[in-house]
Each structure stands twice: as structure tokens, then as C-alpha cells.
Amino acid sequence: MDNTILKVNNLQTHFTSDSGVVKAVDGVSFKVAKGETLGIVGESGSGKSVTSLSIMGLLKDTSGKIAGGEIFYEGKDLTKANENQMRKIRGNDIAMIFQEPMTSLNPVYKIGRQLEEAIILHLKFSKKQARKRAIEMLTAVGISRPEKIVHEYPHQLSGGMRQRVMISMAMACGPKVLIADEPTTALDVTIQAQILDLMRNLTKLSNTAILLITHDLGVVAEMCDRVVVMYAGRAVEESDVHSIFKNPKHPYTQGLLESIPKIGVRVERLQSIPGNVPIPSNMPEGCKFAPRCKFAMDICWEEEPEFKEVSFQHFSKCWLNEEVSQNAKKFVGSTQC
Amino acid sequence: MQKNLLEVHNVKKYFPLKKNIFNRNQEFVKAVDGISFFVKEGETLSIVGESGCGKSTTGRVLMKLLEPTEGRIIFEGQDITDLNDDQIRPFRKEFQMIFQDPYASLNPRLTIKEIIEEPLIVHNFSKEKRAERIEGLLEVVGLNKYHSDRYPHEFSGGQRQRIGIARALAVHPKLIIADEPVSALDVSIQSQILNLLKDLQEQYKLTYVFIAHDLSVVEHISDRVGVMYLGRFVELASRDKLFENPLHPYTKALLSAVPIPDPSLKRERIILKGDIPSPANPPLGCTFHTRCPFAQQVCKERVPEFREIEEGRFVACHFAEELDGSLDD
């Protein structure tokens, strides 16, 4: 597998707080191939955003620290890179777009200046060339009057326009990996459709890999090639997008899929996962999902299962998958009836 | 035939923009610009739309938290539009509201017991009755008695929403206006709350006005659905008709924009161009014509009437009949 561009290996990111160490990410591994879209799904507090900040090396202003594991970008371990090296990689090789574009655009600078800053810094363009490139990028993201927009401030734009500007900024230096953290969550559905469409077309054109972080399984189904499901700081399942939706192995993934209402599918009652996501200061022993799992067995409460390949390129972190697969199937079948 | 619990006749809510002393023509944001509908006893009517379409303002006007600029609101046959604060109070018992943000809608300095007790005190329940009622309510919404002395910050988002629901139910309301009650919640919690709302409706014969932007949630919970765009209804129909055969181009686009959690499904998608126009300066004619893929000259000139094209099915589009089933060919 030499087309892997980004590889995260047993990443652990811990935060120190007054009440002790919070293990926000505690053992996450995945690979992203060139041009591929990998989705990371999870609910709030599952550690998906912290994973992306760890990759970008953006933890230094927080109490967070990478406590273990490696992040390989084109063979280089980013956890060992210093700030100078990271600065070269950020924006140039790995770019990021955030959920709320207003908080990540500088309100006191004009759009043009913000776009050109990165271009001048990374691509060593002259001011004039940078302006030309900025206008090209804005055109590419479907902004209709880019020559005017470069002279405007972020607050003069609508939410959808701002997100387009963010994308053009992220794509300006031709990154190989784009990390998109809930890029459409703050947008209306019709605008979301526009932005997703745009991301798909732009990245296909430049063969950029996307790490798409979201809680919306609909967005995952539409955008991703492969999916990692996270729960309580851990990756609990990983596979290609079709297997995740057709044949989920982990009870959490199953529960998640059953609990969303689907357009065109009418049910009287929705299935739901009982209870709440555990708080980091009070993590259960053993499998972190055991308290909410309808299949929980004795061993689940005592020992944490490993993240293992259960079928080709399909990984799951569950004791059920450890059982002889036939038995497990019977068990799952009988409890569901 | 169920009777109408709530009727809304041509309600408008305009918010004035900053006054300019030299300019006599006061400008307004037309948040709600002439809507009419009714809600039957025991049903769930959903109001969907994107941000800025006026759905939340509608909810607030129905609750009489905002005075309508124009129009009438009839509750159980009585016109409540012009009642003042004192006169409206006995009616408030009949309709209650559930809010979107369970973090902002509970007073952080009150215990759960005090939060739920407040409406009971306002509506003169005796002390013994109050204690009994609070205990019962906590159980109904899936919380425990020992939760009653805790403060909101000790609860998760889903639990807080349960507390908000308990507070709304406290005074035995007939109508509940729920403004985005699940959109701040995680998916696994969202389904718990949706199920709870359905159970409560059955148990207490509640009527819901459900305000939301998530169409899959709306399809799950509603009997009838109204779609709003820039302060007006563009379509209102039974859930089945609206989802299976939407007539208004905006409804069609909205439905096709929802990402479906099934990767093997590939659909034709209508991608709307541009953004929602500002409600302070809406387009002339049909307000949707700037983004409508089927727009014609007449759409720029004439406001389409919100008309009943078959029983119980209202559409505001000049070409509703022609567009019927046009996507199926």
C-alpha cells in the first residue's frame, strides 16, 4: 500500500485539567490513500475533532498533548516535527476547513488579503500573482463576482459564501490532504448540497484526499469512500462505506444507523441507543460502549476488546466479533428478534 | 372529523429596521408575511424551512410571545389576538413551548424541581398537588425522583431536553409548540427524544406544532407539513403527499438536497443556485423566482396565490399543476 498519504497509528491525545487527565483520543488508527475521502463519524465528545487538531499540530494553545502514537504524512512522523516544519506542512500539504467559517476568517482583513497571505507565504508568489491566483480560486469555488469579493470583509458575505471562501483558501496552495471538520453543519440543506458538490468536484480534479469529520451519516454516505466510526476517543469500526451501511459489525454503529430517521422510510418508533455518551472523567472499565450495548457480555465489562480485522479491510473493536463468527451471528440474530 | 384547535388567519410579523429621520418610508424585515393555516386536535403539524424563513417567528407569534403585526389567531374558537398579558394567562396553560437549546432555556440557578414547579405556581396549583405532579412528570419523561434537587448543569443535553418537556407538560397543555427540539442533540439521543414526544402525544392526546429544518425528522413525526420560504408558506400538505409528490419547486429542491444515509443510492439532485434573499428586501413576484429552476416571466411579476389545488393540499406556485410528477418522467 504505497499510495497511503496519511497514516495515523494508535494516536493518543490527552488533556490535563484540574480534575486529572482527560483522554480525548485514546487509540485511533487509520490510513488515507491519495485522492480518497475518509469519513470520521461520531457524536459529540467522541474525539473526532481532537484527532484532526492533532494531525494539524494545532494543540499547542490548548492543554492537550499527543501522549502516544504516530502520524505519518508521506512517511514523515508529524508528531516529531517542530513548529517550523509544521508551519510549512500546514496550508501547503495539509489544509483544514472548519465548521463555522466566521470564527476562522479574520474579521478585520479583506477576503483578498486573507487568501493571498497563504499563497505568498507558501508558493512564494508576488503580490500581483497572488491576487490573480486568489481570483482564480474564488471563481473555482463558484463565487460569481470575485473581483469585488476580494475587497469585501467576511461579515459582508452569507454563511454559504464564507464557507466557499474557506474552501478556496484551503485549496489555494494545492494541498494533498484536506481536513474538513463538520464543513456543512452550520449550513442550510440547500447550501449544504452546493458545498458538498463543490468539495467533491474540486478534490476530484486535483486528486486531493479528504478527511471528512462529521456526525451526519447522510453526508458520509454521499461523500466518503471509507469510514471510521469513533466512540469515546476510540475507533470502534472501520471499513468501506458500503459495508458500514449494509453490514455494520459494531453494536454502536448498528445502533447509530437504526436510530436515524430516513427520508422515505416510515417506522412507528425509532430504535434508540439507551443512555448517554460516557464522560471522560468517568470512563467504564472494559469496553467503553458496554453500558449502552444490548449485547454486552461479562467480558465486555472487564476487558477492552482489540481493534481487529473481522473481514477483508473491515475492522471492529468488539468482543462479539472475537467469538467464532457463526456463534456471534446466531447471538446477534436471536437478540434482535 | 376532528375540530380545529388552532386557526391562524393571514398573520404577519414585521420587524422595523433602524429609523431614518429623513426617510419617511420605514423599512421592515418581513419575517412572517401573511400565513394562514389550522391545526387539528391531536395532530402534528410541522413547519419546515431554512434559516431566516420565519418558522421560529411563527412559533413565537403563536405563543403570543410576539405580537403579530396583522392577522388573527384563534384558539379553540376564541380569538386570542388582542388579549393583553393578564387576559392571555389562563390560555397559556393550554399551550406550552419546548425550545431548541436545552442549555439556554433552563435557568441555571434553579433546581429541576423549581424549574418544573414554576408554571404550576403561576397557574395556582396547591403545594401538595405540585409535589405529586413533579414526581409524576419526572417519571413520565424518563428521569428519576432523585434528579429533582439537582441543577441543569449536572445534566446532559438529552436529559435537559427531557426537563424542558416536563416543564411544558406540567400544566396539562393541549398544544405544544416545539421549536427545533432535537436539532442540538446527538443522533443517538435525538431518537430517544422523538420517541418520547410520540409516546406523550398518544398518552395525553397532545397536539404538536413542530418547527424544524431536518426533513427526515419531520417525515418521521408529522401528520401534515408546511414548507416556508421567506416568511410565507409555499406548500402545505399531508406528510405522505408532500414527501411522495412534492409540487412546489422549492419543496422538491429541499427534499432532493437531504443527504440519504445509503451509499448505494444515487439520485438526481436539484442544486439550487445562490442564497436565500434577505427578508428585508424580498424579490418581487414569487419570492422564490431568483433560485427557481422553472421560473418564467410571470413569476417575476405576480405573487402566486397560496391555493388549495386538491383537498387539504395548498401550493403557492403558478405552475403547480404542470410540475406535478414532472420529475417522475
UniProtKB/TrEMBL annotation, chain A:
Residues 6-257 form the ABC transporter domain. It is a peripheral membrane protein. It comes from the Bacteria. It is found in: Cell membrane. Its main location: membrane. Pfam families: ABC_tran (PF00005), oligo_HPY (PF08352). GO terms for molecular function: ATP binding. The keyword NADP does not apply. Keywords: ATP-binding, Cell membrane, Membrane, Nucleotide-binding, Transport. InterPro entries: AAA+_ATPase (IPR003593), ABC_Ni/Peptide_Import (IPR050388), ABC_transporter-like_ATP-bd (IPR003439), ABC_transporter-like_CS (IPR017871), Oligopep_ABC_C (IPR013563), P-loop_NTPase (IPR027417). Belongs to the ABC transporter superfamily. This is ABC transporter ATP-binding protein. It comes from Psychrobacillus mangrovi.
Automatic annotation (TrEMBL), chain B:
The keyword Acyltransferase does not apply. It comes from Psychrobacillus mangrovi. This is Dipeptide ABC transporter ATP-binding protein. GO terms for molecular function: ATP binding. Keywords: ATP-binding, Nucleotide-binding, Transport. Belongs to the ABC transporter superfamily. SUPFAM superfamilies: P-loop containing nucleoside triphosphate hydrolases. Residues 6-255 form the ABC transporter domain. The keyword Transcription regulation does not apply.
